[in-house]
Design a protein that fits this description.
The structure is a homodimer. The first copy, chain A, is α/β, with parallel strands linked by helices. Chain A has two domains: about 150 residues, Isopropylmalate Dehydrogenase, CATH 3.40.718; about 160 residues, Isopropylmalate Dehydrogenase (3-Layer(aba) Sandwich). Chain A has eleven helices and eleven strands. An eleven-stranded mixed β-sheet of chain A has the order 3-2-1-4-11-10-5-6-9-7-8, with helices on both faces. In chain A, helix 4 runs parallel beside helix 5. The termini of chain A are far apart. At the A-B interface, helix 8 and helix 9 of A face helix 8 and helix 9 of B.
């Protein structure tokens, strides 16, 4: 891929690490043409690479420590030599174009904040997840980077999200909605009521007002802004509900002889649909607001999703998306400053 | 139904009022044997009743005012003669056993709080929604009554929800989970981190720890506790996601000739499944913590759901559920008091 440095892939992060992560790296390199460097414990990684006969294709950078899936933000402070910390270090030094990790979200976010630092004027980072709406994805942020926010932070998330939709998804003048519990400006908790007022007054944003939980997948706006707590609950609720609906559907389809016949006919199409709605297929979510490209893959990612996350990271790095997203926030902050 | 006073049905509340609400009242009375009194503007209601030839079967109590679907909590203070206020008044006087409304949630909650008052020791009311899990529903609360809460309020919601699961759903020793964004005690925002500590120490509760968005429909606990903002976002996200999954499914099924044949075979079963997952079919959600039974039906309710909500309200009133739920909170509050 036009001579950019490789993607630094945290080989120790994720429920299926290192096996599926290494398999994902092999796919990214061979099938997608994305250069990758694996960061982790060499013996295990060499063994996995050998399994694919890829020992000479993918370099390994040693990291002695690992942040486990059930560890939180504090672990990142205690482990300066963790695989995710080393991956961030490679990006800072310019030896990698981006970080990809399927590790614990709290651990990845805390480490990346510490090692890459926030872009100038950015209050808090946010995870931007593309939801499978049509004709293009709706960006939901924050999906879990920052659980406690101020109203001003939500305005910044709106700017980060709008810039991401423009730059990464090619949406001109993205419409921004605020996630809350009713259509009118006065509906919601104290946080969103104040954020609504600030968003109304924010320059350079096409703020269209409130959206609700049932608007996540109907494409009514291009960017949905919320705090990391609510966004994470909503995202996981969405995933669980789609899985539940298909589980119930399968139980129904198996129920009778006529139904079984029908199932037989439709098996291929149903499988295809299920894959499209599968959160792992999205590839990953970008962590916005830091000095470097970071893509967080689903904790349960398998090889295919790891490879997709590497491809997303390389594309974002090549387009300079993160830098352009940060510039937007910086220039908005300056404009705000002039107005006050 | 064994001589209880009638259910006071807010005939003016809901997207399809009064037509579908009156039709629901007729169904409740004729098909389900639930006595109902309609509260609203007589000319419109008489006309609707005549349409069903039910003018002599269902009494009307006059209410001059209405709280519109887009009005919030303040409207309830401004309109002491609204249909929902009069319905609450009937319950206070003992002339009705319960209130049912498909009106604006904020309006119904504010009016009911004002007219029926909180039970002794109850800090804030909560809406308890039964989610379609198996073998019995999981109770999610709060689904939108109280958007801003303190950690102590979440402990009370846990007690209200556990008492409701026991009394209304017959679940012995209900397991209670706290909705947040990670499995470990330290995951979440400030509110849930503190609530986790309090729930761990709360007497008489089987608190099993954190649950996440994808646990809403997997039946891992019997009661899911959250604030009214997060709960409402999660509930509407669930509804929207199920609707989306079935919409996508339908598009897939219509896609080819083989698929169309299969669809034909399965039409009856699919329709049945969709109905079961439809939020309107739940009937309604109980508002817990007030001196009186209040059931809030979905704003888009049609006749069937209105009738189901009336039946739920009558059953809760007959069982004395609300009083027993309140007693539990009162006795827990006393126990806590003794411990301090």
């Amino acid at each position: 891929m036009d001579g950019i440095p490789p993607v630094a892939l945290d080989a120790m992060g994720g429920d299926n690490a290192p096996g599926e992560v290494v398999a994902g790296a092999v796919r990214a390199v061979r099938d997608l043409g994305v250069p990758v460097v694996l960061v982790g414990a060499p013996p295990a990684l060499t063994e996995e690479l050998d399994r694919h006969g890829a020992g000479s294709e993918i370099p390994i950078v040693r990291a002695e420590e690992t942040i486990a899936m059930d560890e939180g933000a504090l672990a990142s402070l205690r482990r300066p030599r963790s695989s995710i910390a080393i991956a961030c270090h490679l990006v800072r030094r310019g030896d990698a174009c981006a970080v990809v990790s399927a590790g614990s979200t709290a651990g990845v976010v805390a480490t990346a904040k510490l090692r890459l630092r926030a872009q100038p004027g950015v209050l808090r980072p946010a995870i931007a997840v593309p939801l499978p709406t049509r004709p293009h994805p709706t960006v939901l942020l924050d999906a879990g980077a920052t659980a406690d926010v101020k109203p001003e932070t939500l305005v910044q998330f709106a700017q980060l999200g709008a810039a991401y939709a423009e730059t990464a998804l090619g949406v001109p003048a993205p419409r921004v909605g605020l996630l809350t519990i009713g259509g009118e400006p006065g509906k919601g908790n104290k946080l969103v009521k104040r954020a609504h007022e600030l968003l109304d007054a924010a320059p350079g944003l096409d703020f269209t007002g409130n959206v609700e939980g049932h608007d996540l997948l109907n494409g009514v706006v291009d960017v949905i802004v919320t705090d990391g707590f609510t966004g994470n609950v909503a995202l996981k609720t969405m995933e669980g509900s789609v899985r539940y609906a298909f589980g119930e559907l399968r139980a129904t389809l198996d129920g009778g002889r006529l139904a079984r016949l029908g199932t037989l006919l439709q098996r291929g199409r149903l499988r295809e649909l299920r894959r499209r709605l599968d959160p792992e297929a999205y590839g990953g979510a970008a962590l916005l607001g830091l000095n470097g490209t970071v893509v967080i893959a689903h904790g349960s990612s398998r090889a295919g999703s790891v490879a997709a996350a590497c491809a997303l990271a390389a594309t974002l790095a090549r387009q300079g998306t993160v830098a352009r997203v940060g510039e937007r926030v910086t220039s908005s902050a300056q404009k705000q400053h002039r107005r006050w």
